[in-house]
């Protein structure tokens, strides 16, 4: 028996998938470039000013020279959830070291107008049940998420010993004393029995390497350091009245830009949005959460149930019930439906792949049709269409972004893959035309494809003086993405080599936090000075990771971006940037068993 249904548009007309695939490759080829990640500028030297904290004044303090039980590097979600679980486990002496002026991590820095979570608040905002908070919207805005971070910090007593505006410069294992030495840019040199790090995947802002960028004489800033003194308004949505007489260039059209454009569009005298590659912008469907409805679902254990349901639905391990019902789960539901529609004798890897591709192309045709339905000017609409598979680049969701281009003073400068050519003292030049502007806002993203230790801003020296950068010279090697052989009492809180669930990163972090708290509790209870993964257990995990069948995110057929290392072969090391081969839902089940058994197989306590 052979199935005959190919991909169709919502009106039932067939989609010519060969033509679409050819177009995808043409658009990719326009954007491939030899310099990959090197096209971006690091914010050092004369560009370091772009990193200044516009939100909190720095307060002088005396250096710390004491001892703590746990030092956690990073005060974002990773540090907060791990700190919370440690507090719950009765571990005292937890010190969070954070480069920002408060807790929040990404939500401390990203206060640009319109910032909100792209994954549903009920699963994105951690520890809602523990803190008794009900998000106000299906997708909460940034100020509410920042306040929630502060709520977690207060609820679990994490402010008491936190060090803000403090950057770690060096971490060194002291084998004689079985403890870590933590050094910082504040002159601190304190010790910690345990060290954990959650420095985040997207926290080092970058600028595009556009010729002339430093010659601009007007005002400029990066979106993660929004200058409300200049623009007026505030992160809560007050109008950006400082821009009423300003011509503004916004460079970049990724997830940040998509959220900021609707706010800038009404506010600037003229807004020019410089686009190299359009984002796919699907339906948002935000709205307030109803307290009565929330009370009906928020029965004990509700957030864990929602987390598990989202992960299972999104990764194809669901039972059919979809609690979150949004753009992330829609694509997954479609793919599963395509596969379920296959007759049993056609369930081959090739047909399953084809079913995925059909579901994807249908989804993307809908997203492209939405542009035509919303944007009045046909040329602008054409320019805003994304020609790649949905998981080639970060999917976006917004209900006002496309409509912003219907405003008379909002201009899309579509560069057809070429990007901005040049910046002069007064203008941004693209498509051979100079656009005079008063202000340039860089929505140019964050470092991703660079080394972990470069992004962290410090290296870690483990047993026998071995540095983490050396240990990982041929790629990351861990057990669970958390434990590294040769680095006793050290824990990483991040998704890679664990669940690697990108659509809801906090789920990775909460599970890691819970597990690390259990391991530290066990070490303290058994009087162990050290806990370390054995070399064999680490190798076995790495071997397991190498059986990963490959991911649908990114890939060489994709248009360049950080999902595919800017279109460049990342070499053999990239094979290790994967998750548990059986998928995120299976990983969380595995981890739960590993943790609850109390045996912590693969770890050595001594
Ligand atoms: P991105 O890296 O996604 O976007 C950078 C943008 O700059 C791209 O559109 C890029 O184009 C463009 N660009 C780079 N160089 C040039 C140039 N020379 N000329 C013109 N344009 C150029 O950064 P974002 O800050 O938007 O997002 C980063 C990530 O942060 C997201 O992918 C997401 O994971 C996260 N995020 C999450 C949000 C949420 O959950 N609510 C909100 C915002 C961000 P090109 O595509 O061609 O490279």
UniProtKB/TrEMBL annotation:
Record GO terms (molecular function): oxidoreductase activity, acting on paired donors, with incorporation or reduction of molecular oxygen, NAD(P)H as one donor, and incorporation of one atom of oxygen
Q: Which cofactor does it need?
A: FAD
- Return the InterPro entries for the record: FAD-binding_Monooxygenases (IPR050775), FAD/NAD-bd_sf (IPR036188)
| Keywords on record | FAD, Flavoprotein, Monooxygenase, NADP, Oxidoreductase
Name the source's superkingdom: Bacteria
Keyword Transferase applies: no
Pfam families xrefs:
Pyr_redox_3 (PF13738)
| Family recorded in the similarity comment | Belongs to the FAD-binding monooxygenase family.
What is the protein's given name? Predicted flavoprotein CzcO associated with the cation diffusion facilitator CzcD
Organism equals Blastococcus aggregatus
